[in-house]
Write a structure and sequence with these properties.
The protein has one domain: TIM Barrel. Helices cover about 30% and strands about 20% of the residues. The chain is built from 8 helices and 16 strands. The chain is globular, with a radius of gyration of 18 Å.
């Protein structure tokens, strides 16, 4: 038996494959396709302290090798999440990672505090939300703000805290170190790259929000580079994501230094993508004579 188990901040996953927040809801729509117990973890859509309506439509546009989205973190809020989504996910033999969003530090801390007594395994803090107090710049684009919010969230968190880093920065290693200094237990990256699409016939923006987050295969080379840089910069485990469609894609991230990987946009075109990535990693290990997945983490030369 090949050992595919990895450990993230003291939490053991049966394999390194999870879902990327915002692409998997809270699992219910995908549970109809396969047993979610095939995954190391399910990462939920962003959860806020109150329901968020999200951005006006249209808010998705296809691009070459990817998509733009400006959903605006629409979600029903923590009350519905606790009542409806956690019990659903608990049916499966997989770890639950809750993605947390907010507009102020207090918003994040309220959700984290509320989840302290809930049966979830890790918290992923989405710092790509605009910081209302700082005039709209994302928490994740300013190292001091990132360190400060990490430190605050850690005061309320009972579960290990993963800080999800934005790629829309000059130096990803600086951001990784700021999250580590704030007490983060793990990092995940990358979130989407800011992009724009224009309809030349209507002479209007393809997305009502004008800009959106670019995801999918188009961002993978940038994501692999940033995961490598972050893994080199800190001693924390790193979860890599950005354009993973196949086991081969996932293995690039693992070799670059990722302990685990998240499959996102690929779920929209192939609902079984994450399960197939997990199976493909195991096949690769057999073909290559790798007994333990940990032999591959950061093994690029």
């Amino acid at each position: 038996m090949r050992n595919t188990k990895v450990t993230l901040a003291g939490v053991e996953l049966k394999n390194p494959v999870m879902t990327a927040s915002g692409t998997f809801g809270s699992g219910a729509e995908y549970g109809e396709f396969y047993d979610l117990g095939a995954l190391g973890a399910v990462v939920t859509k962003g959860v806020a302290n109150v329901p968020w309506p999200g951005n006006p439509t249209p808010r998705i546009a296809e691009t070459a090798s990817g998509m733009l989205n400006a959903i605006g973190l629409q979600n029903p809020g923590i009350d519905v999440f606790v009542e409806r989504d956690i019990p659903y996910l608990r049916q499966y033999d997989t770890k639950i990672i809750v993605n947390v969003c907010g507009k102020t530090t207090e918003d994040y801390c309220q959700v984290v505090e509320r989840l302290a007594l809930e049966p979830v395994d890790l918290l992923e803090i989405n710092v790509s939300c605009p910081n209302v107090k700082e005039g709209g710049i994302a928490f994740g684009q300013n190292p001091k703000a990132l360190e400060a919010i990490t430190r605050e969230v850690k005061k309320y968190a009972k579960q290990p805290v993963i800080m999800k880093l934005s790629p829309n920065v000059t130096d990803i290693a600086e951001m990784a170190r700021a999250a580590e200094a704030g007490g983060a237990d793990a990092l995940s990256l990358i979130n989407t790259l800011t992009g724009m699409k224009i309809d030349i016939y209507r002479r209007s923006f393809a997305i009502a929000n004008r800009t959106g987050g670019l995801s999918g295969p188009a961002v993978k080379p940038v994501a692999v580079r940033m995961v490598y840089q972050a893994a080199q910069a800190v001693k924390l485990p790193v979860i890599g994501m950005g354009g993973i469609c196949t086991a081969e894609d996932a293995l690039e991230f693992i070799l670059a230094g990722a302990t685990a990987v998240s499959v996102g946009t690929a779920n929209f075109t192939n609902p079984c993508a994450a399960k197939e990535v997990a199976e493909g990693i195991e096949r690769y290990m057999e073909q290559q004579g790798v007994d333990d997945i940990r032999e591959l983490i950061g093994a690029v030369k």
